[in-house]
Amino acid sequence: MLLSTGAIPAQTKAPQDSRPNIIVILVDDMGFSDIGCYGGEIDTPTIDKLASEGLRFTQFYNCGRCCPTRASLLTGLYPHKTGIGFMTAQDFGKPGYRADLNRQCVTIAEALKTSGYSTYMTGKWHVSKDFSEDGPKHNWPLQRGFDKFYGTLLAAGSQWDPITLTEGNSYTKMKPGEFYTEILTNKACEYIQQHDTQKPFFLYLAHTAPHWPLHARQKVIEKYRGRFAAGWDKLRAQRLERLKALGILPKESQLSSRDAKVPAWDSIPHKEWEQSRFEAFAAMVDHIDQSTASLLETLDSKGVRNNTLILFLSDNGGDKQEHMYGEIGNTGKPWAYMRYVPLYTPDGAPVIAGDIPGWKLGPANTYGGYGTKWAHLSNAPFKKFKKDTYEGGISTPMIAYWPKGIKAKNQLRHQPSHVADIMATCLELAQTPYPKSYQGQTLKPLDGKSLLPVFEKDQKNHKSLFWEHHGNRAARVGDWKIVAGYQQAWELYHISKDRTETQNLASQHPEKVKELSGLYDQWAANSDVIPREQLNIPEIPPSDNPLVRSKKEIEAYLKVANEELKKHGFRQLQTEKQ
């Protein structure tokens, strides 16, 4: 029916949602002290500015490795409860080790989407065993609550030609010369630019940098030439002193001993090449800082920076993994055995997959890492590495920045906290209760606790925290921590006084070891944790795994790659040991 006046009724504009936007920036394999505001030598002015205008957490913990940390961050649960107590390459048939997010958990994206948030993700997913474009896709990002996704499904990959690059639910490719960290950033900025500001958004930006392969643009690498010439021994000591001066560690903190697998800097050959490895790593971190600057510029252009919470952290400590001359550890297998290693560049040149003294990293025809020696610097002043449950494996820098919501500026928060706390924090910000069920499935109760009270003031959050990965174990209860490597006895540290774990007090306080180990056993029994011996974990995937190349493919590649190395006078790549 026509209105007699001929007028069209005005539409009432919905009021703008005042809840904050939330951005989680997760970086990959970056150590505790790599960025400037945590004592490092790398130029990170944008990240440092977030810290100076926000909060730095001094005792924030991850789960020690990529998949478990991501599962815990996304769900607010300990990783075994999500089905990802180990990695995604193999399903062990045990509830805590299914290599896939289960349906007894809900992701941040799923929870926030039901309360009116738009949900976006760019970057590394790595919480599903299924990565074929043909499916199944039930645990891909769009099926776990994200409105938009651009990124990779697997663990590692070239910055110049990443494997399993996906937009939405379909594989895609980058153009030659494009760089993955930059493309992820551009997509994240595009999502923000296109976002309707009448409602809040959640953005999960999960960089693969600075995980190997150490790829960066040459102009950024050149910026760091010679910066690390002092070597890992002196640089570790200098980082400790800066951390103490910043108040991040107590004044009485001692430097952990040089790892048994790390030689003294003064004793090694190939010093220039060794420096070049960390120069490439530093350039990758620099790229992340540039990415963060672009993100802030986009928030400013939309006028939403003031009411956006940004959390910045790493998934685990620096990685000790070695691939000298292209061998996977000491397995006798060439690195090209794994499909995440590209055999050729987008231009058709062979990729030299391995750490070869003299062969400098960064360009698309390289594929290497920085190894145990430089990982020891990344994790300074702590001991051990990624996969371990000592502080070097599980400690991360964590910055919280929110101009409107965090009144304290340039302050430290010393309360032990955990990646599982991020879900609870997002829920409180979204004024959304954690659901008891989702899509007909009963959910496990949250393990994490909201960080909002800790944003207000430094106060207690967790009474206890626990870890298990690959047989490595730890429990932190108050001022005490027990920790053990696989098949090793418990060690005991007064962690509030000895964060660097230099004084093992197990023999002096056996009653404390008994108390904490009992609590660990209770936690393990309630969290789907089982002894590593019951899993029979292979060092590398078997030949029938879809991640593994055929012998014919590998042999053809090695022939071409070794001809390239021979042409330039380098030692050849590892061929498979019979």
TrEMBL record:
The keyword Metal-binding does not apply. Residues 20-431 form the Sulfatase N-terminal domain. The keyword Secreted does not apply. Keywords: Hydrolase. Belongs to the sulfatase family. The lineage of its organism: Bacteria, Pseudomonadati, Verrucomicrobiota, Verrucomicrobiia, Verrucomicrobiales. GO terms for molecular function: arylsulfatase activity. This is Arylsulfatase. Pfam families: Sulfatase (PF00884). InterPro entries: Alkaline_phosphatase_core_sf (IPR017850), Sulfatase (IPR050738), Sulfatase_N (IPR000917). CDD domains: PAS_like. It comes from Oceaniferula marina.
